[in-house]
Amino acid sequence: MNLRENAMAIYNGEQPDFYGDLMAAVEFIIDPLLERDALIPQDGKEYIDSWGTVKVFLPGAPGAHPHLTPENIVIKDIEKWEEQISVPSIDAFDYSKVRDQAASIDREKKLVCFFCPVGIFERSHFLMGMENALINYLEYPDEMKAMLRVITDHKIAYIKKIGEECHPDIIFYHDDWGTKQNLFLPPSVWREIIKPLQKEIADVIHECGMIYMHHADCICQPIVEDMVEIGVDIWQGVIAQNDIVEIQRITEGKLAMVGGIDAPKIDIENITEEEIRAEVRRAIDTYCPAGRFYPSIPNAVCYREWNNSIVMDELESYGRKFAEEHPIQKTQSI
C-alpha cells in the first residue's frame, strides 16, 4: 500500500500495512486567508489580521498568537458587536496558487488536505479575549449566537469556495474547545451555542464531498458523542488525558482518531530512548486494537529534534510490526 491507501484502510476499518500518523499521508494546500493572517515575521512586533485581531510571532515561539489588550480587542461591547465586527471578503484572494498546488499533488498516493484554522469558538475569543468570551457565552448567549452566526456564514462560504476551486479530500478544521483538564465551556452551553452551527459546517463539508477532520488537542471526552452527531469524521489531536479506550467504546467506532502519544511526557530533556519508545508502543498497544486509530503526537511533532526522531522511528517499526501481528479478521468499517 502507498501512504494514501494505508491511511484510507485505517479510516475504513480495514487491514493496513502499518499503523502510523495520518498526517504523513496528506499534502497541505496553502490557505490564502492563513497566509494573510498567520504567516507574519517572527519579530515580536504587532500585526493585524483580516478580522482586526492583533497578533505577534515571538522569536522561538511555534507560531503567531493573538496579543490582546482591553484597548486593542475588536469587540469591546458584546451588545454592540454588529458595529464593531468587520468580516473579511473571501473574494479578495487569488486562488490560482490553490488550484495549482492541488493539481500538482498525486491523488493516487496522497490525500489533499486543506487547513482551515480558527474555528468559530476560537474566532470569538480572538475578537474579544478569552475571559470576555467565556463571560459573554454565559451572560449574553443571544448576542454570542448572533455574532457566531455571522462567523459561521463566513466559514461556510469559504469552505464552499475552496471546494469549488480545488476539491480537497480533507478539510482540516481547527478549533480547540478545551484544555488538558476540561472543556472551556460547560457542555450544555457548548451544545446550545456551538453545536448547531458546527453541524451546519460539517454538513457543508460533506455536501462538498470532503472528509471533516477536526483538530482539538484538548479534553473533548464530555462531547465526543455530540462530535459524532455533528458529523466529525476524524478527531485529530486526541491527547492521552482523555480516556481514549472509553471514547472508542461509547462512539462505537464511528469516530476515527489521530493522537494518543503523550507528548509532554516524552518531549523533555533527560529521558532515555527506551522510555520514548515505550510510550509509542503503549499508545499503539492500547488504542489500535479498536481500529480506526492513527497513533501520533497530537500536535504533530515533539519539539526536541532527537526525541521526535525516536518517536518517528518507533512508529515506523512498531506500527508495522503491530499491524502484521494483529490482522483484522473482519471489516470494522462504519
Please provide a brief summary of the model:
This protein has 334 residues and is an alpha/beta fold.
Tell me about this structure:
The protein is an alpha/beta fold and 334 residues long. The chain contains 13 helices and 10 strands. It has a 7-stranded parallel beta sheet with strand order 1-5-6-7-8-9-10, with helices on both faces. It has a single domain, classed as TIM Barrel, CATH 3.20.20. The protein has helices spanning 3-11, 32-37, 81-84, 96-104, 120-128, 130-139, 141-166, 187-207, 224-230, 244-251, 263-266, 273-287, 305-325, and strands at 26-29, 47-48, 54-56, 65-66, 111-116, 170-174, 211-215, 234-238, 256-260, 293-296. The model has no long low-confidence stretch (mean pLDDT 96).
The overall number of domains is 1
- What oligomeric state best describes the polypeptide chains here? single chain
Which strand order does the major sheet show?
Answer: 1-5-6-7-8-9-10
How many beta-strand elements? Answer: 10
Domain Uroporphyrinogen decarboxylase (URO-D): 119-285
GO molecular function: uroporphyrinogen decarboxylase activity
Protein name: Uroporphyrinogen decarboxylase
Pfam families: URO-D
What topology does this entry show?
Blueprint: H1 3-11, E1 26-29, H2 32-37, E2 47-48, E3 54-56, E4 65-66, H3 81-84, H4 96-104, E5 111-116, H5 120-128, H6 130-139, H7 141-166, E6 170-174, H8 187-207, E7 211-215, H9 224-230, E8 234-238, H10 244-251, E9 256-260, H11 263-266, H12 273-287, E10 293-296, H13 305-325
Parallel strand pairs: 1-5, 5-6, 6-7, 7-8, 8-9, 9-10
Antiparallel strand pairs: 2-3, 3-4
Helix pairs in contact: 5-6, 5-7, 7-8, 8-9, 12-13
